[in-house]
Amino acid sequence: MSMTGTPEDTARWRELLSADRLPAFALIMLGVWLQAADALVTTTIMPSVGADLDGYAWFGWATSGYLVGVVVAGACAGWLADRIGLRRAMVGSGLLLAAGCAMSAAGPGIGFFIAGRVIQGIGAGWVLGFCFVTIHVVFPERFLVRIFAAATAIWGVATFIGPLIGGLFADGGAWRGVFWLFAVQALLFAWATIHLVPAHGGEQGGRVPFFQLIIITLGIVLLSSAGVVTAAWLQWTLVPAGVVLLTLALIVDRKAESRLFPRQAGNFGSLIGAAYATYFATMAGAIGFSIYAPAILQFTNGLSALEAGYVVAIEAAVWTVAALLVAGSGPQWRRRWIVIGTLLIPMGLLLLAFFLASGDLPLVLLGGAMMGGGFGLYSSFANRLVMANLDEHEGATGSGGIAAMRNAGGAAGAAIVGIAANVTGFADGPNAQSVAAAGFWVCAIGVPFGLIGALAAMRLVALARAEQSGAAVKS
Description:
Number of domains: 2
CATH superfamily of the largest domain: MFS general substrate transporter like domains
């Protein structure tokens, strides 16, 4: 696909919402909602789960198990769509997510509940990955930025509504009802897929990429475990080992006959590789604010859990607004927004490093807004560049890999900031000294990742500009 164009090569909202495209668009938005809201609602109800199932000690494993499922499933979503067909794959993902939700809802003990969370993670990772593949298959390139902006809006809505839904169920002593609610929605997703998704793929052969999947699984397990174990030496061992395994998976995949990702995914000098590096690094840098800011703000500003959660939600709110505001930008500004957006992320993290634990709420809001604005400015346009530069044989794996790279970055970042928080003594309970140190380090440690993401984004833009110039010369 050509990178050239004018502002008119971005579809208008009324075209996207026309009668012939609205059903498929709505299905994609439902898939995005299922993953976004499931994760956010579950965070709110976990204290009730722990009390009911005597599972406080297993909080971290419930989250880690879900995360392992999400990343590994997302990594193979594109390959699976090519292998068995997009429609069947999406139906299966909805049914699996429903089964995982039902297991968590009916779980008599914490072990059964965690098993359900792992299956939920696999189902959710596939649902989101297949939604990205559907975007690539169903919609022409000029619709992509609008669709990704709308998906961002769904995340923003989930950020505000998710905790409320979870709080209502938890306060009513009915936390299991949350999972039954999402099981029904997952079944609806599977049913709608049968009628709305074309029978794409399912004809490509090739062996199952077991080796790459095993390496990715081990890498994510090590990273997720680092956020749960308490021994510092073990944490410092698990994180680099996990990152090395993820890097090794890309290298192996590039040379494999049956691949999970595009061949250039592990080549950071390529457009696809630069985009994937941007996703991974920016998410790894920003995740610490989401994880630790609520607890820090409750201590420093005396906020309730819900109030602190909504302060942190400023990131998602501004992310949504920024993505919608710039969705109609032309090619020149799309590239500029990618660079500007990725630079805003480390700038916001630097501001938060100095003021998150200060009690100065307006500056905390500003830092969160800068990060959210950064993601909103760059994400949709980077996604469009990736999908526009995938060849016909790598469309499914390349588009499905977008979510996998983001989730892998989040897993790596969560493990690293978890170590930083533990070193400060925050894990032993908040006090003035540990909160001050944790407030600085959980954000400061993300600044280098944010800068790496910005450099990768500059490389991405330079490659896109060179490709456009080459296309112009040939024409």
